[in-house]
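re: that chain from earlier
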Amino acid sequence: MPYKVETFIKNVATTVGEGPHWDPETQTLLYVDLQAGNLHRYNTLTKIDEMRHYDVPTTLIVPRKSGGYVIGDGLNLSHLDWESGVRTVLASVDQGTRNRFNDGKCDASGRLWAGTMGYMEKPVFPEMEVASLYTLEKDLKVNRHLEKITISNGLAWTHNNTKMFYVDTMPREIWSFDFDLETGNMTNKQVLVKYPKDTIKTLGYPDGMTSDVDDKIWCAFYDGSCIIRYDPETGQEISRINFPTSQITSCCWGGKNFDELYVTSGHVNITDDQAGSVFRVTDLGTKGRPADVFLG
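^ sequence. v structure.
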């Protein structure tokens, strides 16, 4: 695969760059610097990277059809008015714990999927099996779909919305489910990919995820310096993209034709030249679909 990797925004994340989301209406790339509490909005037309800072981990940012954004801030899912910077809490979960939200994105019906993770005193040793995967429905009700999660991470669906894919980072597995878009029900859990313990040093930990128009899934690897494309029917690796830094966290499709893969990375206790950068990958021979937004 004759792909091209370029540094799109160098060293922008001071902690963990995460949660990329391409907004086609404004040609902007949304992403977070998670532990720094920074939300970014990079306009690819003006080359201006706007930022909002809060004194809490900011873990996801997704456009809201009615205006503004939904963000993950600590254990809250909140509405953000970008211009004023005002946050309004929509829902809170896992009260009385040291958990926080982690990755999240919307499905094709416009509900937001967002999971939590256990408190992590140092990488990569979180409290185990204390977190959950939730949805924020369009009526703003919260439903819990999975329990005993450790680090809720990547989410992806097939184009016909009959299969859903999900990463819990610490078991080092990618799971597949039969999916009902109307109800949001996940059934028939299968382990699609399981990584042997002896690959931790070379591959690290599965993290954020996306899918392409061919219904293949792409998974980023924290401490693995790569993104791997998988066949979702067999779990077999199809191809791999290598990066010049190790903490690859997530990816999304963007650009005018959705044929550019935008990739975030971390900057935690590493000093290499590209740590915390956002990368753009082109010439991949496929493309993605527009990311869904929150309709609540």
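The radius of gyration is 17 Å.
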